[in-house]
Amino acid sequence: MCAGLRELGVSGGAVIVHSSLSAFGEVDGGAEAVVRGLLQAAGTVVAPAFTPQVADPFPEHAGDAEADEARARVPLFHEGLATPMGAIPNAVLGWEGSCRSRHPQASVAAVGERAAEVTGRQPLAYAVGRGSPFEWLYRERARILLLGVGHDRNSFLHYAESLVPHHRRKVRRFPYLVDGERVWVRTDDVGDDNGRFFPQVGAEFGETGGVRRGKIGAADCQVMDCVPFVGFARRRLAELLR
């Protein structure tokens, strides 16, 4: 894993990893071996650790006994809450010394030299935009890794879209503790893409020569620098979202 990443130009610095463990084929040591290889190649490893299960199951429904009971079963976010994002993000969460940002639905997990810095702040509204871990990664010129997945899984495209004035929007609604009381919080964020534009924008960026490609095991992998990627994606999304 480490040798494959270095062949792709990953050496030191911060990386954000979007991944599918199954895409690699058989991996001796599983997800933990992948994380170990990532840490050998990079200084700080970040993975989206989103928790969409912390959400209102009836967002458009004012409420009745059935809705209230379902809402009461929604878990509060906590540091150890598992993410459905896959085995590798959960391995990052379980790594000794890992850190996690505190957003109830859009947290990231990090290990390595600067894990506490990248996870240190995240706004409740526009959790993937300005003031978020994604902005920190952008300032630090992190690399984006797609390991066995495509741009439909590239969360940095949400950050790029958040910088477009006429971006798509959605409402997040989640339970949250305020002075020890469980309340429901409603915030705005950039909307979901659902495969509409993100794969196209990622493919077009690849045509500029800004993506390094290779195989690690059976997985098709891509590495790109986040600053030129965000600049390109921001321009193209502004055009596509007119």
Automatic annotation (TrEMBL):
Keywords recorded for this protein, A-Z: Acyltransferase, Antibiotic resistance, Transferase
Keyword Acyltransferase: yes
GO terms (BP aspect): response to antibiotic
Annotated catalysed reactions: a 2-deoxystreptamine antibiotic + acetyl-CoA = an N(3)-acetyl-2-deoxystreptamine antibiotic + CoA + H(+)
Entries under InterPro entries matching the protein: Amioglycoside_AcTrfase, Antibiotic_NAT-like
SUPFAM superfamilies registered for this protein in UniProt: TTHA0583/YokD-like (SSF110710)
Main EC class the enzyme belongs to: transferase
Pfam family, one: Antibiotic_NAT
EC nos: 2.3.1.-
GO molecular function list: aminoglycoside 3-N-acetyltransferase activity
Domain of life: Bacteria
Family (UniProt): Belongs to the antibiotic N-acetyltransferase family.
Protein name per its UniProtKB record: Aminoglycoside N(3)-acetyltransferase
Organism: Amycolatopsis dendrobii
Species lineage: Bacteria, Bacillati, Actinomycetota, Actinomycetes, Pseudonocardiales
